[in-house]
Amino acid sequence: MNPVFFLFLRRMRTPLLLLIVVYTISIGGLVLMPGIDADGEPWRFDFFHAFYFITYTASTIGFGEVPYPFTPAQRMWTTMSIYLTVLGWLYAIGTILALLQDPAFRRAIAEQRFGRAVARLREPFYLVCGFGETGEMITRMLLRHKLRVVAIDRDSDRVAALDLMAWGVDVPALAADFRDPTRLLLAGLRHPRCRGVVPLSRDDEANVEAALAARLLNPKLQIVCRAQSESARAKLPSFTADEIVDPFEIFGTQLALALNKPSAHALHKALGSLPGQPLPARHAPPRGLWLICGYGRFGSTVARHLQAEGITTRIIEPKAGIAPPEAIVGAGTSQEALVAAGCREAAGLIAGTDTDTSNLAIAMTARTTNERIFIVARENRDKNHPLFIAAPVDLIVETSRLLVNRIFAELTNPLLRRFLEYVCTQSEAWSAALYERVRADCDGRTPDTWEVRLDADDAPAVVEALAAGRRIALGHLLREPRARDARLPVLPLALLRAGALDCLPDENTTLARGDRLLFCGPLGTAAEMEWALGAANVLEYVESGAEFPDAFVFRWLAARARRGRQHDERV
User: Fold this and answer.
1) Would you tell me how many other CB atoms lie within 10 Å of the CB of residue 442?
2) Can you name the residues that pair with 491 across neighbouring β-strands?
3) Where are the alpha helices (DSSP H) in 145-261?
4) Is residue 441 part of a domain?
5) Are residues 59 and 146 in the same domain?
6) Strand order in the sheet with 500-503
7) How far apart are CA 67 and CA 41, in angstroms?
8) Are residue 48 and residue 151 in the same domain, yes or no?
9) Are residues 522 and 459 in the same domain?
10) pLDDT of the residue at 60
11) What gap in Å lies between CA 16 and CA 88, rounded to an integer?
12) C-beta contacts of 5-13 below 8 A and 24+ residues apart
């Protein structure tokens, strides 16, 4: 049974029974009460007319005494019936108003509306569990790439605020515990258009439970789970989540990369950032003594990666219980603690506490103590980003953006991660040359990266040409669809064929059906390339220079004209 209807009947059982009893007494008494007609003969109401009279009397409409004037006894009974029915209706209406304010009833209505909205989705969508700062950012990126989102969050205020955001499309959202499998099913876990589940809350245990439930209920879905604690990651075996994302591990790896290969680190940031932003500068953190303020999960993770690179670290931690044996027990905001830890001789400092104000204060104090020190500051809240930009910080650890960039790439562009892993294996000179090429093609802005699958969905024109035996080279897709002699500012990063990855493939490479291609270029160039991928006449133009109309009538007329010319030449 519909839960809203069931809850309504259960709460309205007493008022409805009361109304039935009141109407039965009022109608029965009116039928039994004798009256006098116009000829002075006795008459009585039948049940239908008694019900009709009580109906408009109880609602205080009052058409009058019909069909004949009432006797005093009938008027007395009618008066009593009016009070009985009005009081009954007041009680019933009051119960309905109370029911509309009941949290359980409103939750049932919200779930019903949510379920209908999800069932009506006809586009591919991702289920985002936990709609905090990171969830909002990943939603905006998915919507920008024409992918729908369904959101679940345990905080009803966040769900209510979602309606106030200018998404451009409707984002079905529900305030519920996403650890509950029934809520996941209601959110479309088995919907044919659901592509994957992304648990993103700050509660690692809740993320683990959601990932496990999603894997068991629909093993075909892609699952990308946020998990920062070691205990949570240990509960996520390889068969549970396709990717386990820990922003602290991501930054630790990137910092180690920046120490050895600054250009490779800059490529990671450029290719993994929102397109169209100013291209991040190359950072070359110095080697030497590094101070780490805050030895929580972030500080301990970064310390491990630095020590693996042979960097000497010294910890400043205010809580003696979690500080390692040789740590300086004190606050990083204190100049005395920084001096005692060797800030005046240190090469770098990491402000890695859980509070943005503390990290900003640490950075300012450290800069006052040592003007040459390289400062890394952890940004916990994206809304404080302008403060970190204005602060004396060399490198900002944007936790939310690290998460969003990795998750978005994993969901929509899995080839990018493989390419970036390849970048890490190359020399600094190779990475520097590629970085300069990206900078030149994108005019100093972060590039857009996209993946193309040579199949009937992504590239129907190419698939049709390959089936006809034509040779389509990678360079054909890089030509300007309006002027084939010009080249699109697009860089082919990788080609995946039969499991083998070819990075920076040659433009003369012959394409084959089933290939997966990774490109980067300025924002908007992906749409330019789609012309050649989807329109047969555009592909033929960039391939051979021949121009043919695309509409059926014009193609027929063009073919007829060609046959006429050929006939004239033979004659």
Assistant:
1) 23
2) 520
3) 156-162, 181-186, 204-217, 230-234, 247-260
4) no
5) no
6) 448-453, 516-521, 491-497, 500-503
7) 13
8) no
9) yes
10) 77
11) 9
12) 7/99, 7/104, 7/105, 7/108, 8/99, 8/105, 11/95, 11/99, 11/102, 11/105, 12/92, 12/95, 12/96, 12/99
The whole-number pLDDT of residue 510 equals 93
pLDDT digits (tens, 9 = 90+) for 197-232: 999 888 888 888 899 899 999 999 999 888 877 777
Same domain membership, residue 75 and residue 133: no
Supply the CATH number for residue 489's domain: 3.30.70.1450
Alpha carbon distances (Å) from 361 to 70, 373, 393: 89, 15, 11
Q: What's 445's DSSP letter?
A: B
| Residues of the chain below pLDDT 70 | 1, 235, 237-241, 547-571
Extract the tokens encoding 256. 């180690």
Q: What is the pLDDT of residue 241?
A: 67
**Same domain, yes or no: 142 and 239:** yes
When divided into structural domains, the chain yields a total of 4
Count Cα atoms within 13 angstroms, Cβ side, for 544. Answer: 9
Tell me whether residue 430 is in a domain. Answer: no
Asked whether residue 206 is assigned to any structural domain, the reply reads yes
Q: 59 and 88 in contact (C-beta within 8 Å)?
A: no
User: What does the mean pLDDT of the chain come to?
Assistant: 87
Question: Do 97 and 128 have their domain in common?
Answer: no
Reported as half-sphere exposure (CB side, CA atoms, 13 A), residue 548 has a value of 23
Is 280 inside a domain boundary? no
What's the token pair of residue 212? Answer: 């496990």
pLDDT at 137: 86
Question: Sign (positive/negative) of CA torsion 396, 145, 463, 522?
Answer: negative
Q: Which two tokens stand for residue 137?
A: 């950012």
**pLDDT given for residue 552 in this prediction:** 47
Out of 371, 393, 415, a domain closes at: 393
- Give dist(CA 268, CA 280) in Å, integer: 10
Are the C-beta atoms of residues 256 and 306 closer than 8 Å to each other? yes
Domain encompassing residue 375: 286-393
* Same domain, residue pair 36 and 85: yes
Bridge partner list, 243: 224
What pLDDT shows up at residue 513?
93
457 and 498 share a domain?
A: yes
The DSSP bridge pattern shows strands 173-175 and 148-153 to be parallel
Neighbours of 41 (CB within 10 A): 8
